[in-house]
UniProtKB/TrEMBL annotation:
Chain ranges of the Beta-hexosaminidase eukaryotic type N-terminal domain: 41-158
Signal peptide region: 1-24
Protein name stated in the entry: Beta-hexosaminidase
Residue span(s) of domain Glycoside hydrolase family 20 catalytic: 180-492
Catalyzed reactions per annotation: Hydrolysis of terminal non-reducing N-acetyl-D-hexosamine residues in N-acetyl-beta-D-hexosaminides
Highest taxon above the source species: Eukaryota
Any single biological process term in GO: ganglioside catabolic process
Family statement drawn from the similarity comment of this UniProt entry: Belongs to the glycosyl hydrolase 20 family.
InterPro entries: Beta_hexosaminidase_sua/sub, GH, Glyco_hydro_20_cat, Hex-like_dom2, HEX_eukaryotic_N
Cysteine-cysteine disulfides: C71-C120, C289-C338, C510-C528
């Protein structure tokens, strides 16, 4: 920095001090900046009505009974939520509210009955039914086990501590269902390795926010932590360290942990770009750059049949390991510079009359898509795989992440494609404060299009890219900022009163903290 720069910095510094001292003349009132709600639900239910009365719960005696159909998913949920509800007595948020008024006769709620009316589905899926009704005088009715899970989460959030080690729940009736079927969180485990135990806690946090898709961006340029059965050398050479990997057992545990919570695990193996770590063991499938980039490996080499054979075999394994219908195959940010520098690529393009690099990428994506679909999987791709292309199969779901998302959603849905929004939900874009309002304000249907087009928006995903997060900070960076996205995707379109949301989110952070999710403060000075 030159001298002039130093002087300028000094002036800015002085000015900064001056401004701080001016603003600190206003002395804040003691106490939290935002008063938390007491027993309010996040994300906000579709319909709720309260009588003004309340029930008390004796945590030592309270139980949850299945009166309808029962299965392993429901049994496990009942034991999880029984514990969560009992542990609510340890919350430190509500001391100021322990004594309540407004009820004439106080009844004890001894048990909650869960009436599941249809046989359990084994696995969560895109069109699962998550609706439920809940009367806190004692009954949950759900037509699918997924609705029963969401109902138990809601009930647990309504419960707050009372005097004498008792719990309190308002007499309330709720009917609820999500607005969008795909409410996801992307977690990148390539830029930093994230331990399995942290991933499981992320799934806990997702459950408390009614997210239903864990988009696992499992590998990328920087590392390949997935231990393949077919190609173990990929992680042996491509992981950051031999112990920074996800074994088949780890992956199975994460999928099962999600399954019983109604969370789908969708893996992403991004091709043909973002694959540099694959080249540590399989350089032959990547493009050898030439000229200016001599000695570097670029995106996959789309001219070789060996590349397709390898990708096909890996995706066949992915198809077997990850039970979800959908597989994310990436398709973003392919570096054309390396392809441009390669004589092999240019010769191939001339011989095959391929006019441009986007066309070459399109040929690659089409080829991979066909093989995914022959396995009965449906591909999800990032927007670039689609932008210059009308020939992707109509089933393909496109994820919008960059640029004018309103225009892009409008374009893709006009072309009949189903779409996911992420552009406004990048969790790695950090600003000051609680930093969630910007996510809350993004409305996925705020683009021009017909009703039919709007129906093609399946929902969206918060994206936790991994460059600046590791085991130590990923959880507080995701929560509660992603909670704003969860409510936008679950609650009705007119749920946008930020003042009201602030108070509920203040409580929700305390709740997540109590349950072992280290969510950061939502709004500034507060009790949690
Ligand atoms: C929070 O509640 C307390 C007690 O009811 C009240 O005195 C205070 O003004 C409230 N603070 C805010 C910011 O609403
Ligand atoms: C469960 O709900 C169904 C449908 O509302 C109802 O017909 C049935 O009687 C209920 N069962 C119990 C045990 O409450
Ligand atoms: C429980 O609440 C529901 C919904 O408010 C109501 O229809 C029902 O009559 C109540 N049941 C009892 C036993 O009070």
């Amino acid at each position: 920095m030159n001298k002039e720069g130093t002087v300028r910095v000094a002036i800015i510094f002085l000015l900064g001090n001056l401004l701080t001292s001016v603003s600190s003349i206003i002395i804040p009132d003691p106490g939290p900046l935002v008063n938390a709600t007491v027993g309010a639900v996040w994300p906000k239910p579709k319909f709720q009505t309260a009588t003004g009365n309340y029930f008390l719960i004796d945590p030592k005696k309270f139980n949850i009974l299945a009166t309808g159909i029962i299965c392993d998913i429901l049994e496990q949920a009942i034991s999880r939520y029984t514990k969560i509800i009992r542990d609510t007595v340890y919350s430190r948020l509500y001391h100021a509210h322990l004594v309540r008024h407004g009820s004439t006769t106080i009844k004890i709620l001894a048990s909650l009955r869960v009436n599941l009316t249809s046989p359990c589905e084994q696995r969560p899926h895109l069109s699962m039914d998550e609706s439920y009704s809940l009367a806190t005088n004692g009954t949950i009715i759900a037509h699918s086990v997924w609705g029963a899970l969401r109902a138990l989460e809601t009930f647990s959030q309504l419960v707050t501590p009372h005097e004498n080690q008792m719990l309190h729940v308002e007499d309330i009736y709720i009917h609820d269902e999500p607005r969008f079927p795909h409410r996801g969180l992307l977690v990148d485990t390539s830029r930093h390795y994230i331990s399995k135990s942290i991933l499981l806690t992320i799934l806990d946090g997702m459950t408390y926010n009614k997210f239903n898709v864990f988009h696992w961006h499992i590998v990328d340029d920087q590392s390949f932590p997935y231990v393949s059965k077919e190609f173990p050398e990929l992680s042996k050479k491509g992981a950051f360290r031999p112990d920074m990997v996800y074994t088949q057992e780890d992956v199975a545990e994460i999928i099962e942990y999600g399954r019983v919570r109604g969370i789908r695990v969708i893996p992403e193996f991004d091709v043909p770009g973002h694959t540099r770590s694959w080249g540590e063991s399989h350089p032959e499938i990547l493009t050898e750059c030439q000229g200016e980039y001599e000695g570097h490996l670029g995106p996959m080499n789309p001219t070789k049949s060996a590349t397709y054979k390898f990708v096909d075999e890996l995706f066949r394994e992915v198809h077997e390991v990850f039970p979800d219908q959908y597989i994310h195959i990436g398709g973003d940010e392919v570096s054309f510079e390396c392809w441009r520098s390669s004589k092999e690529i240019i010769d191939f393009m001339v011989q095959n009359n391929i006019p441009s690099f986007p066309s070459l990428q399109r040929i690659f994506m089409e080829r991979v898509t066909r093989s995914i679909m022959s396995l009965n999987n449906t591909p999800i791709v990032w927007q670039e795989a689609m932008v210059r292309d009308v020939r992707m199969p109509p089933e393909t779901v496109v994820q919008v992440w960059l640029g004018d998302w309103r225009f892009l959603l409008s374009t893709f849905t006009r072309g009949g494609h189903r779409a996911l929004l992420s552009e406004c939900w990048y969790l790695d874009h950090v600003q000051r404060g609680g930093d969630w309002e910007k996510y809350y304000r993004c409305e996925p249907l705020d683009f021009s299009g017909t009703e039919k087009q709007k129906k093609l928006v399946l929902g969206g995903e918060g994206c936790m890219w991994g460059e600046a997060v590791n085991d130590h900070n990923i959880l507080p960076r995701i929560f509660p900022r992603a909670s704003a996205i969860a409510e936008r995707l679950w609650s009705t379109q007119d749920t946008k009163d930020e003042k009201e949301a602030k108070r509920r989110l203040e409580e929700h952070v305390c709740r997540m903290n109590l349950r072992g999710v280290p969510a950061q403060p939502a709004n500034g000075p507060g009790i949690c």
